[in-house]
Design a protein that fits this description.
With 198 residues, this protein is mostly helical. Helices cover 70% and strands 4% of the residues. It folds into two domains: 33-141, no CATH class; 157-196, no CATH class.
Length: 198
């Protein structure tokens, strides 16, 4: 009986030791490879800034072409601005602390390096997610044009007389065709479209 219990206990202890070892290894990696993690953060930061600039150029072109900007593009730009300024500030503050030494300049500041690595890795993952979200076919769309007739349209007395004449002609059963003529831009088409056939 004793060997079975000892074997089971050994297996449990072995699994626990493996789990603890992996956790310790992961956290030590933050201290040892902090410069690689910070370099990865800076590379992702540059890529995101380039994407942001590219999207901004597309937005400028779309606005010059009279297009409205899509909501998902505006949302992405807002998220990028917020995340970049927030993460940039945190990492830069921690970078300054990580460069300081402890024990009268004899040892590197391990706690600051650890914090810097964690924040830089977290920020790089966030930047990577934003880069993947930047898959826009188009940034703008053409808006539906508004009505051509101005709402403050004012009917002049001369137009009312013409309208009355046209309506009288329509009531006549012998009339088969009505012609409206005049100078360009006086509202002949508007008169026919909006007054006779509303």
């Amino acid at each position: 009986m004793e060997p079975i219990g000892t074997g089971a206990t050994a297996n449990v202890c072995s699994e626990a030791a493996k789990g603890i070892f992996h956790q310790v290894k992961r956290h030590i990696r933050y201290v040892i490879f902090y410069q690689k993690i910070v370099d990865k953060f800076e590379q992702k930061h540059r890529t995101l800034i380039a994407k942001r600039t590219s999207v901004q150029q597309d937005v400028d072109v779309a606005e010059r072409n009279g297009e409205k900007i899509k909501a998902d593009v505006l949302n992405w730009r807002h998220r990028v601005e917020k995340v970049v300024t927030e993460k940039e500030k945190k990492v830069k503050d921690l970078e300054v602390k990580a460069k300081t030494k402890c024990f009268f300049g004899l040892c590197p500041n391990i706690k600051s390096r650890y914090q810097l690595s964690r924040k830089a890795e977290e920020a790089a993952a966030t930047f990577d997610e934003l880069i993947k979200d930047c898959q826009f076919e188009r940034v703008g769309y053409h808006d539906v044009p508004g009505p051509i007739v101005h709402p403050d349209f004012e009917a002049f007395k001369s137009r009312e007389e013409v309208f009355d004449d046209i309506m009288e002609s329509l009531k006549d059963a012998t009339t088969s065709m009505i012609g409206v003529y005049g100078m360009a831009g006086v509202g002949k088409t508007s008169l026919v479209n909006y007054e006779i056939f509303p």
